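Quick one:
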Amino acid sequence: SAYFNYVVFEMAKLPNFAEPRFRELGESLDERRSELARRQMQTLRQLHGLGEYCTIALRIRKFGPQLHLFLVIRQVSGQLLTSQHLDQFALTIQQALPKEYGLVRLTPELNRLRWEQALDVSWAHHADEIIKPETPYPANIWPYFYVASLWSPQSLNDMENVCRALVRQPGEAMISIELTPTKLNAGERAWVERSTQVMREEMNGERLYTADGKALPQHPPMPALRTPTENYENLLKQYDNERLFLHSFRVFTTESP
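Output:
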């Protein structure tokens, strides 16, 4: 049996980093943004240490003209944690979070309404998930290859346009951005390496062989496979050095978007 344990935080107010009290982050606003981005990356590294049985969700929920921000950490375990263990778990998480945001912990005993507002999505009539595009490429062994495209970083690291769109959405609405720490296991690595090898062979027009060693007819080069091949090879290099997360971007609404 699996049990879900939750730790929930709420941000009462977004900090204004132009204020003098944030001078320690830098003299100019651009310097402060750069330092904040560095600290946010450090936070992600620390949250990755929670392990693959934890999911971290940033939830922006709309109530009328106002937005409320919650941070929900869900842990899967073989038993429910005691209050003491939950308190220790919450402290570990809070120490990893940037202190500038002033997150306040919510508990079902002291903050029942806000707790339920952070977790419950039964009010939603519509749910959509944003996924990255995948470009298919034909192949003569497997049905297709695809480009595992990377997210492109934006020059402005903010959510202003997203929040404006959320406020304009009629009825209740919520955006949930979820991250689950993960790692590439041996089987996945072997599959990606084999996929990369086959794509490079097809790209160059080399002779291919079936699993039982039978030679397949020579085929012309397929230069279109250069992009997915290079993407896979770059991903493998990054996997050796980066902390990986499974991710999900979901939107919940009472009215059709």
